[in-house]
């Protein structure tokens, strides 16, 4: 359409137009135009039929698939890169907020006399989500916040505790839920008896714990609003803010900055921290306000990866192959009550609660997946790789157990069940080959494998783990194979697989948010622990050559690591793991 | 007045700031925003600076305790962003989101400057206080070794 537009504009035949490096040229007349310059005219061209198009041949790619491309210096090694936290505007005030100790509690009585005495404090205002102290600098705002005396109305607050929440989820998995997938008749096949194997799995709430705690700069003007944010979801934030302020979306301008990590947190359909900043800033029209959450605010704010309980039951035939598989999941819905509900919650099934389970690729004639959606709990949100964060674990640990029960090699067993799924098979074979699957290991070392597709990208990890003298274990090495279609930028794919593995190792090894009568127990990195440098394994990434359409690589490396690790530990110890984080003994 | 030297420049700051952590003095008063706020409890390393040559969490050092001392921040690590570690960081393509990297670089620079042998064990020990949520640890190790090999101690 760009070429057709240029041909139209310049009145030359299409065949005389060339395209290279983002520039459309008519060599004969020495004319040229960038894609941007032609975009408006191109948009009026008829859309050509898909089968009339010939895509560029891979051998003609200039950048795609190339390594070590020249890169811009983004200021990330000299401190000059600007994050939301770094925004400084003339007359700007800093807001630090006292948030309620329980989800759903509200400030009933506020004594701000001491807070107002703190030098630098300018104002104290009550908002829906707490009490905000505005000051000229961050430390004064924090000291002011700490000096507030607040009585909280906890009458409508959520008071659940993690053990009870999980017990209620487990109980739900004892009963049939809403069907999310139903092939054959799993219930009948299971009722027929034989060798029924079953397992329960539990997953805690997880915080995103981005390095940059949530923050946002807002200036509400007359009929316009400006926002500075490391925003991952501008359209939603713009719409929510416009509604709050009684403006049209185009009156809300968002300056998108680098985000100091997000992993889904800065893409909240509820725009939680953005709305908090707006509600503070609108009390001082014209003044830019930077909302700063301290680490404790961030850890305790909710919008967690939901907690879930799973139960899987299966029967095997005489050859050890699964005849029936029934998978029940219980937990909160991420999308209910959001703008995504109409598109992604169908017949009571939130697609993000069951993804990774409903598209189980293994050939099983009777396969049923059921969901119980729980209404009560802390606010929840997607977290890097969304539903696959839990479904990859339960399905891949369980399939390993079936292989063990059948007396078969976990790789061979999977390959047999993956007939007709060549891309799953491809990554599995490649990872197994590169890791020398089946070869001898040093004493105390073992291997585990897992394969999973998410976001249309296929990933297999082979993990090597060693048992340590102190009764623990160490993740030594991960061999990763990824099929993401055409590998657009192999350097980035490798970096994202490494990062995804690191991110997935935190909940596998140590991260967990727990509630005690509604209070979040964890507050900072001493009790919400995450992976540190000494715990990072050696990682080797292999990319499957492919001509398929390119797919995402940010998330799919994450969900596969915990099940591969659990499988390695189960192989070494015989212990059947039923919950994350993994603990030996 | 409280006197400190930051990246070779002398500053005189009000006594009112005595209890303010160096992190917020650097960021809010001196507008040196490369030193990052991550946890406020000395747990994540994002605010690592050199105080009298030692890697120090700026969120844990009240200005009064820094009085008379010399502070080096990421902005002062090199004149033109060309410290051997900064070059190695780009060569190894270390940063992802980038937020923790100033702290990582300052911890790594202190390790190289210490003259201690640079190997897996010393890197682990020097860098264990710096969290990266993007999982760039493997590349950080490679970049430190590369800088050390290329004479980065100087």
From TrEMBL, chain A:
Pfam families membership: MoCoBD_1, MoCoBD_2
GO molecular-function terms, A-Z: oxidoreductase activity
Superkingdom field: Bacteria
Gene3D superfamilies: Aldehyde oxidase/xanthine dehydrogenase, a/b hammerhead, Aldehyde oxidase/xanthine dehydrogenase, molybdopterin binding domain
Domain Aldehyde oxidase/xanthine dehydrogenase a/b hammerhead, residue spans: 78-156
Signal peptide: none
Name of the featured protein: Oxidoreductase
From TrEMBL, chain B:
Keywords: 2Fe-2S, Iron, Iron-sulfur, Metal-binding, Oxidoreductase
Keyword Transferase attributed: no
Residue ranges of every copy of the 2Fe-2S ferredoxin-type domain listed in the record: 1-77
Example GO molecular function: metal ion binding
Domain of life: Bacteria
Pfam families per record: Fer2, Fer2_2
UniProt name for this protein: (2Fe-2S)-binding protein
Phylogenetic classification of the source organism: Bacteria, Pseudomonadati, Pseudomonadota, Gammaproteobacteria, Oceanospirillales
């Amino acid at each position: 359409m760009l070429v057709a537009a240029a041909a139209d504009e310049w009145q030359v035949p299409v065949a005389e137009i060339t395209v290279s490096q983002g520039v459309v040229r008519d060599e004969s007349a020495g004319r040229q135009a960038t894609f941007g310059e032609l975009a408006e005219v191109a948009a009026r061209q008829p859309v050509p039929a898909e089968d009339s198009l010939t895509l560029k041949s891979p051998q003609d790619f200039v950048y795609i698939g190339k390594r070590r491309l020249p890169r811009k210096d983004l200021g990330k090694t000299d401190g000059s890169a600007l994050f939301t936290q770094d925004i400084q505007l003339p007359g700007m005030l800093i807001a630090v907020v006292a948030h309620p100790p329980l989800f759903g509690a509200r400030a009933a009585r506020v004594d701000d006399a001491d807070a107002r005495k703190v030098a630098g404090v300018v104002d104290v205002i009550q908002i829906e989500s707490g009490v905000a102290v505005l000051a000229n600098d961050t430390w004064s705002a924090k000291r002011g916040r700490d000096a507030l005396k607040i009585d909280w109305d906890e009458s409508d607050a959520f008071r659940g505790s993690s053990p009870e929440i999980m017990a209620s989820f487990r109980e739900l998995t004892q009963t049939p839920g809403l069907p999310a997938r139903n092939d054959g008749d799993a219930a009948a096949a299971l009722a027929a008896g034989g060798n029924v194997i079953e397992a329960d799995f539990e997953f805690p709430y997880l915080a995103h714990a981005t390095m940059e705690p949530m923050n946002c700069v807002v200036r509400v003007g007359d009929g316009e609003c400006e926002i500075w944010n490391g925003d991952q979801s501008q359209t939603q934030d713009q719409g929510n803010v416009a509604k709050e302020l009684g403006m049209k979306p185009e009156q809300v301008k968002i300056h998108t900055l680098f985000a100091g990590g997000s992993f889904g947190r800065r893409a909240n359909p509820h725009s939680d921290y953005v709305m908090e900043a707006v509600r503070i800033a609108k009390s001082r029209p014209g003044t830019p306000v930077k909302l700063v959450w301290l680490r404790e605010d961030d850890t305790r704010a909710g919008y967690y990866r939901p907690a879930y309980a799973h139960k899987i039951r299966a029967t095997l035939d005489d050859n050890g192959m699964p005849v029936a598989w029934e998978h029940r999941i219980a937990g909160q819905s991420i999308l209910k009550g959001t703008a995504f509900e109409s598109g992604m919650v169908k017949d009571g099934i939130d697609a993000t609660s069951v993804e990774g389970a409903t598209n189980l690729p293994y050939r099983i004639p009777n396969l049923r997946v059921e969901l119980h959606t729980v209404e009560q709990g802390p606010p929840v949100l997607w977290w890097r790789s969304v539903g696959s964060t839990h479904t990859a674990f339960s399905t891949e640990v369980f399939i390993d157990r079936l292989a063990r029960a059948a007396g078969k090699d976990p790789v061979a067993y999977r390959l047999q069940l993956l007939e007709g799924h060549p891309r799953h098979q491809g990554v599995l074979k490649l990872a197994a080959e590169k890791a020398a699957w089946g070869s001898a290991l040093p004493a105390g070392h073992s291997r585990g494998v897992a394969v999973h597709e998410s976001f249309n990208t296929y990933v297999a990890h082979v993990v090597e783990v060693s048992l340590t003298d102190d009764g623990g274990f160490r993740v030594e090495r991960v061999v990763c194979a990824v099929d993401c279609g055409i590998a657009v930028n192999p350097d980035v794919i490798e970096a994202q697989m490494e990062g995804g593995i690191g991110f997935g190792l935190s909940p596998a090894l140590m991260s967990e948010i727990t509630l005690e009568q509604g209070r979040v127990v964890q507050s900072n990195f001493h009790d919400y622990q995450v992976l540190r440098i000494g715990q990072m394994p050696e990682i080797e990434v292999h990319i499957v050559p492919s001509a398929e359409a390119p797919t995402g690589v940010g998330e799919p490396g994450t969900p596969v690591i915990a099940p591969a690790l659990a499988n390695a530990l189960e192989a070494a110890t015989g212990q059947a793991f039923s919950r994350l984080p993994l603990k030996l003994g | 007045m409280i006197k400190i030297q930051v990246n070779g420049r002398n500053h005189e700051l009000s006594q009112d700031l005595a209890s303010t952590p160096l992190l917020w003095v650097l960021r809010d008063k001196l507008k040196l925003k490369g030193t990052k706020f991550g946890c406020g409890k000395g747990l994540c390393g994002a605010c690592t600076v050199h105080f009298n040559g030692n890697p120090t969490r700026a969120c844990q050092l009240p200005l009064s305790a820094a009085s008379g001392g010399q502070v080096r921040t990421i902005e002062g690590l090199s004149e033109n962003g060309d410290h051997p570690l900064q070059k190695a960081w780009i060569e190894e393509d270390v940063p992802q989101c980038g937020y923790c990297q100033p702290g990582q670089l300052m911890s790594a620079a202190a390790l190289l400057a210490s003259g201690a042998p640079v190997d897996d064990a010393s890197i682990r020990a020097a860098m264990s206080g710096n969290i990266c949520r993007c999982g760039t640890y493997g590349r950080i190790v490679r970049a430190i070794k590369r800088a050390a090999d290329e004479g980065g101690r100087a």
